[in-house]
Amino acid sequence: MLQARRIVVKVGSSSLTTASGGLDADRVDALVDVLAKTRTRNEGAPNTEIVLVSSGAIAAGLAPLGLDSRPRDLARQQAAASVGQGLLVARYTASFARYGLRVGQVLLTAEDASRRAHYRNAYRTLEQLLVMGAVPVVNENDTVATAEIKFGDNDRLAAIVAHLVRADLLVLLSDVDGLYDGDPSKPGSNRIVEVRGPEDLAGIEIGSAGKAGVGTGGMVTKVDAARIATGAGIPVILTAARHAADALAGRETGTLFHRTGRRSADRLLWLEHASAPRGAVRLDAGAVRAVVERRTSLLAAGVTGVEGEFAAGDPVDLLDENGNIVARGLVNFDVRELPRLLGRSTRELARELGPAYEREVVHRDDLVVLPSALGTA
Questions:
Q1: What's the pTM value of the predicted model, to 2 decimals?
Q2: 316 near 310, Cβ under 8 Å?
């Protein structure tokens, strides 16, 4: 049985709404029943803390606006989200009030996860809501999202939030009761009970969006979210919303993804999964080996070129000689400073330009090697 004091629960649109749009009050209440009872299930023990990452704003706004399906254009998606978000939070507020619980709405955008100051502010807000006994309800702020309306149907957002709040468990609720080794609607497909690492998924064809048609994600985004969370030391349960009580009670249900890594520093997970690179730095072959294989800092001697517009402290991609991204890090120099440093040793730079130029271009403590680079290193 998984022992978890702080749990992030993500629920998809299809588990909260009807296929034609509009909230299903009975489904919302059934979910809230489980979440509220989970908070106080151990009499005399500290409450289990729940953070709810909820999709459903756009879907909830369809029917009230007379839309019979999810619109494709951004403007109408944002309009539906604007109407639906208020309805969604009002429904949660009323439902949790049956148990004397308050909810706190937290709307995030990709930019909030891409900027470290915003990322830290989000942590402080969520932490304070939990300390004060409220249930945070997190959603992407679809009303102002532009090119990217989604993190990945909130699955990726849920994984990042789980790390952000130092959760003990991430539960992904869907309209499918786990990960299958084939199409779950076809005979002969079997549910995968446990995933201990990438090798357990070899040869598995992972499906796309669910059958309800009101969400944007699918099994691909859920497996990706599980990879992010388990790599940061957080186990994940993927199951159907109707099995939420079993998942939260630690009973076998759905698919359990075991942790594959240890909890990393916030800035490293932020760098790998939530940062928006402001530019790129090109490396020679020797620098690529040093960064990827030996995990050393990047020095100016190994840099062959720069791209984009970035300032000191911004995240940048590190590229190999073929333009492949091998790592990401926080750069210590402005894009206008770097060209005169390329290919030169730190000793030479310190002698000519002063001790301030003896520092690394990217320090190893502010650098993450990306998984795609490890297979070719």
A1: 0.79
A2: yes
